[in-house]
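re: ur question from the group chat, yeah i did fold both. here u go
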Amino acid sequence: MPRLFTGLEIPPDIAAELSLLRGGLSGARWIDAENYHITLRFIGDIDERTAQEVHAHLEKIRRPPFGITIESLDAFGGARPRALIAKAKPEQALVELQAEQERIMRRIGIAPEGRKFTPHITLARLRATPCARLAEYLASRGHFFSRRFEAKRFVLFSSRASTGGGPYLVEAAYPLG
């Protein structure tokens, strides 16, 4: 039973720059740069027949390529930080692609995504990281400036059941344009 999700790959040059932010944060389990991505829609553990149906529907998506802007560093989790992220600007084309995939998954019978779409790249998973230490980390990396790339495809990733962070395999790619 594959665990699937759709996403956008991060170009190697931007991934390499983001990987330079690794280190200096207690309780961080850093994600390998080759596993950086922007999740569009988590699908979950599904049977092979449903996976084929997902693939057939994703193949029908027709959208032009669009720009992605990585704009800032942030964290998820509030008082109990759980992830260090690089936020992507929620530009219209990105939000529309994600919304189309959400509609497709619901039509197939996959449960709706419970969280609001916040485009981001997870850089590290955090465990018992003090808020003050995270604030210091983010403040010391205030020099991070935005990066932009063009999304020319989205992909269907698979992952193995684990605590997260990869490895992720590209099962299928769907060109934009």
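okk and heres the other one u asked abt
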Amino acid sequence: MRLDKPRVAPLDVEQLDPELRVRFGDGPVLNIFRTLANHPGLMKRWLVFGNHVLSKTTLAPRERELLILRIGWLCQAGYEWGQHVTIGKASGLTDEEIERIAKGPAAPGWSALDRALLRATDELHEDSFISDATWAELAGSLSVQQLMDLVFTVGQYNLVSMALNTLGVQPEPGLPKLPRS
């Protein structure tokens, strides 16, 4: 974690906008949502896009989580990493693969598609562009919609990582820690 305390304090559940409280039901509300609830209009609109990227995407869940974990690691977003390790495991990533994400696309053991997904994430992070070679490799396995979802997934979680890091959103107890490379 870059900050050891929040810059923007998460709201108590009782302070949440009533519409947001209904959306989250009776379960616990994560710190990311309690923090973003400080700006209900922004949060309401962001949730629509975030829901597409997380739940309505054309990417397979494992592929989506590979992208999210890699951009989270590149941005050194400890909160994002911790939340998505759990989601990644539920989506089919192994402990060994999750550890290897920090080593990147050149690490041995990746399939050709996994390597291309990781390389695309690195390229988007470094240059805001997927190279022709990586695009061509991905296009051999992914549809146009999947390619578009890839770009928007990396972009969404780059944005989320920036917000989490800058706002100082603190992890819930027990989340996995961000590994070193």
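fwiw on the second one: The two ends are 15 Å apart (CA to CA). The chain has two domains: 13-54, 59-166. idk if thats what u expected
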